[in-house]
Records
---
Amino acid sequence: MFETQMIEYFGNQVRIEGFSEPVVRGMLEFIYTDSTKISLEYAEEWLRIADMYELKKLKTLVESVLIANLDVKNAIDAFRWSVLYKTTKLRTLAATFIKR
């Protein structure tokens, strides 16, 4: 798997820390199949992992799920996450939603 002399090469494993198991499993599923189920329960974590590993298609998928589920309860969080993780469509729509 790894050809350079990194710790992962010697240990034959990669540690992904700071994320819940469902999100890591979902990310790996997305990498291999180009699809996964996005749970709103972990919405911010999904954006964070997609941003950290530069998975643009996953980030776009999460953004579209958040947009489709935008409501009074999550609009402020969605706007905050859109700023943190640079999702312009979500930012625009969340801001519009909040202004109403």
---
Amino acid sequence: MDRLCFGTFARTLQSAMQIPNSNQAVVELLLDLVAEEASDGELSASFSIRAKTVSGLMNFTDNVHEDIVALSSTSKVIDKMPLKFTSKIMLVPMLVDDLIENLKLIINADKSISPVTRDEMVTFADKEHLSDFLSTAYLYALNKSNKIVIGKGDMEIAAELAPDDMVLLNKIYAKYPRPKYLPVPNEPMDEELAYIAQLLEAYAEAAGVPGLSRVALTGYPKYSNDLRQRRKEYYAAETIRRGTREVFKESDADQFELLKEETYDGIFDIHAQDYKSGYERLLKVMTQVSSIQINKCSLSKLPEWIGNKEKKGVCHILVNDGKISWVVRDE
């Protein structure tokens, strides 16, 4: 995640700490570095380090307690912090370089940090000045908002979270339930004519007849049922295509285009093979597309958005686009 806050600092430090380095242990240790300097009345009764507090801080759903934030700016905390990082934070020696580099990446990527402050922090980013580097970054992180406001950039945030950040991931995903399926009209719309024409050609080739119309399919129940299913697949994919407009802002990459690109890449080899008929190619491609992993586009992260029906429907859209065809004739 490209911002320096308590959660990102704690997670980065945790990856290089010796055991015990559980979420609870790390949060307790870091907050105690500040809390132990509190005089009477400087920590209110509302401050605690319960499991709920730990979860909120590590999953970016809560901010650091205001009393800790206030204390972190006092000279008694600032002056002692480098020594505390030396004496109380036990690191795995082999992981120190990784810790420094990972923390530098976060600092350099955080556009909210002023150039002057960034340069001051990064100046200490080496083993010789490790305690100064960590203490400076930590005190800065304490004074930044830890809580993520779900909204703009949700999918970018979700993509950067670890799989076990389920609290925040579920909060993001819950905002985007799967769009309601578009109904399949009785008569094909104009935008369906291209892929349906290819299907009819594939059916005719398999049936050994010069051509087939939709009306003529009544005499071919197998292909009539197949067309009915293919239209459901097309509208499942079209539902997702339209749904992306409501989820992703215009400045984002076209997520549906990424889905089409990844689908095309996943079926290219199986589509290019030789088959007895276009219908056989259709079936082979549909089997293949059901098994491919869709990882590149953010749509794949939204639960229940992309299933087999949607992936098959994307193939029909690729036919519409002229990217693939079921009946392939030698030029």
---
Amino acid sequence: MALRRSLRLPITLAIVMIVLLVVLTVGWVLMAVFGTGGNAANAGLYWTLLPVGTTFIALLLVGVVIYLVLSIKAINLGRRQSNFIDSVTHELKSPIASMKLYLQTLNRRHVSQQEQVGFYRFMLEDIERLDHLINQMLDAGQMETGRVDGEVTDVPMADLLRECTESVCLSYRVPVSTVRLDLQPCVVPARRADLEMVFRNLIDNAVKYAGSQPEVEVALRAADGDYTVTIISDNGRGIPHKLRRKIFGRFVRLGLELEREKPGTGLGLYIVRTLVRRLRGQIKVRDRENGSGTVFEVQLPGAPAAQQENEHCEDCERLSRFNAASDARPLNGTDESLSSTNH
């Protein structure tokens, strides 16, 4: 209720100001019209002041509307930041408390070798969870500064998607068969780290928000026009149509933070959209055709791997012809110089 009241005050104030400005505008127009009829000598002055005053009042009205929009955006940003703080606090506190419990148990009690191995594995998973959270926040910070480090190379997308799938399935302790892959060999010119962030986040969300019996599909194909299409779908609840544009904002998560069942910071899709735009690509969201679920479609500049290999072979062939011609010229020049010397 407190969050709703925070919006009620600026909206009510803006509506009152808009109504007052409308009344002022109507009164100004009526006063000017009646003034011209009652005083013919000053009619020209009234007709001059009428559009000037009306323009200023209209500008005030536009300013009030802009103020209302900016106020609502600022309040919504405050809500998202509050949700982000709650989420990060929970994400940091849970693994720390877990590791503390394991360490206290190992320190105060005698446990078997097998139990020690299990404790160490759980603590390592908690550390990896913290590492993933910190890296995600650092990546979001780099998105803001616009820093780009690393060399652009032709990245084999099929191999990258398999690696991301195996990593996500391992972190959620689900079989790799949970994610069904249908991959056509393609390459995308980009930084490998950027592509890993994009598709790891998307596959992570698909597995995280899938149904009780998770079904995730990842398809990769080359399309006409020198670009590749990667489709990631799940069988979760889906995303309401009116919220599909908002989910790519910073700190945006659906619902209240303390009522959610799944962990997260609201930065994953923001990072995905920013990187896809930086790579001159597009990302789309739609419903699953059969049953409930969400489909993310990522289009990136690229080409089939076979085409890249053919272009590489053609370049190698041209290079070999050039080298052969270059090798032939020095031999002729050497023969001529030798013959002239002997002469």
